[in-house]
Amino acid sequence: MILSGETRLAGILGWPVGHSLSPRVHGYWLERHKIDGAYLPLPVRPEAFPAAVRTLLELGFRGANVTIPHKRAALALCDSLDEAARRIGAVNTLVFAEGEIQGRNSDGFGFMENLRQGAPSWRAGDGPAVVLGAGGAARAAVHALLAAGAPEIRLCNRTLERAETLAQDMAGPVTCVPWAARAGALDGAGILVNTTSLGMAGKGTLALDLDVLPASALVTDIVYAPLETDLLRRARARGNPAVDGLGMLLHQARPGFKAWFGAAPEVTAEMRAFVLKRE
Ligand code: ATR
Asked: How confident is the model over 39-88, as pLDDT tens digits?
C-alpha cells in the first residue's frame, strides 16, 4: 500500500514489542481492505509511557493497542473507560476521538469470539466454568464468561489470595478453589480454561488429571505457542471439544481495527495461516 498524507495511523505500545504478532494481524487486514493506513510497533519504556500516549494523540494517531507492561498504567491516562476495562482493571485498546483518550479492553471479547468461532454449539450458560490462573488473561476470561451467562466460575490459582482479589473485583458467582484441588473442580464443568503460563514452550507443563471432566466440556488454552498444548492434545484424545489460544489474540484485535480504520475485519483460516507463517 502506498501511503498518502491522509494515512490513518495506529500501533502497539509495549516494552518490548519485537515479539508481537499485532503488526502482522493489522497489516494483513489493511492490505485486505485496501485501507490507506499503517499499524506500527511502538517500543516505549514504562517511564516514558504517559508522554508517548500524549505524543501519539498530538501526532494525530487514531489510537493504539497497549500490551505488557503498560496495560494497567494506561487506565490512569484515559478520559473514559468501557465497562470491560474497568472490570478487568486493564486497557488493551486506546481510541483517540474528539481530542479524548478512550480506554477499552477487548481481551474478553476476543476470548469469547474465539470460542464462538471454534465451538459454535457451546453455550456459556450450559454449565460451570473452571478457570485456571488469576493474571490479566484470567480477568478477561472471567469477565467475558460472566457476561455471557456462566452460572458459576470455579477459579483456581496457585496463589489463592490472587484468585480471591479477582473474585471480589468481578461481582458474580465466582468460587475460589485451592490449586491442589483443581482436578476435583472439573466435576460437572461445561468449560475448562487454562490462563496460566503452564504449557507454554520453555515453561513447565500443566499437571492436571482430566478424569472427572465431562466428555462434552469445552477445553481452551490461552497459550498459543505451541498451538497444540499438552492440555489440548489430552482433551481431544479423550473426546472433548478443544479450541486453541491463537484466535483470542486475533479476535481481540477486531474492535480496535474497526475504531481506527473504519472497516470490520474477519478472522479466517487464511489469516491464521498468514499470522503463523512468521514462526
Ligand atoms: P497474565 O497476565 O498474562 O495472565 P501473569 O499475571 O504472569 O500473566 O499470570 C500467570 C498465571 O500463571 C498466574 O495465575 C500464575 O499463578 P500465580 O498467581 O500463583 O503466580 C500462573 N502460574 C505461573 N507459573 C505457575 C506454576 N508453575 N504453577 C502454577 N501456576 C503458575
From this structure: 999 999 999 999 999 999 999 999 999 999 999 999 999 999 999 999 99
How far, in Å, is the centroid of ligand 1 from the Cα of 31?
A: 36
Question: Which atom of ligand 1 lies closest to the CA of 179?
Answer: 29
Please say if the pLDDT value at position 279 is more than 80.
no
- What pLDDT digit, counting tens, does each position of 140-196 carry? 999 999 999 999 999 999 999 999 999 999 989 999 999 999 999 999 999 999 999
> Among 158, 160, 179, 203, which is best to mutate for testing ligand 1, by the most ligand atoms less than 8 A from CB?
158
Q: Pick 8-107+248-276's CATH classification: 3.30.200.20, 3.90.1010.10, 3.90.1150.10, 3.40.50.10860.
A: 3.40.50.10860
CATH domain 123-240 topology = Rossmann fold (3.40.50)
Cα-based distances in Å from 141 to 55, 105, 108, 148: 32, 12, 5, 10
Which of 71, 203, 258, 277 is catalytic? The answer is: 71
**Ligand 1 closest atom vs CA 136:** 2
Residue 133 Cα to ligand 1 middle (Å): 6
> What would the grid cell of residue 169 be?
473485583
258 is catalytic: no
Please answer whether residues 252 and 110 qualify as being in contact, where contact means their C-beta atoms are separated by less than 8 angstroms: yes
Q: Which region, left, alpha or beta, applies to residue 278 given φ > 0 means left and ψ of -120 to 50 means alpha?
A: alpha
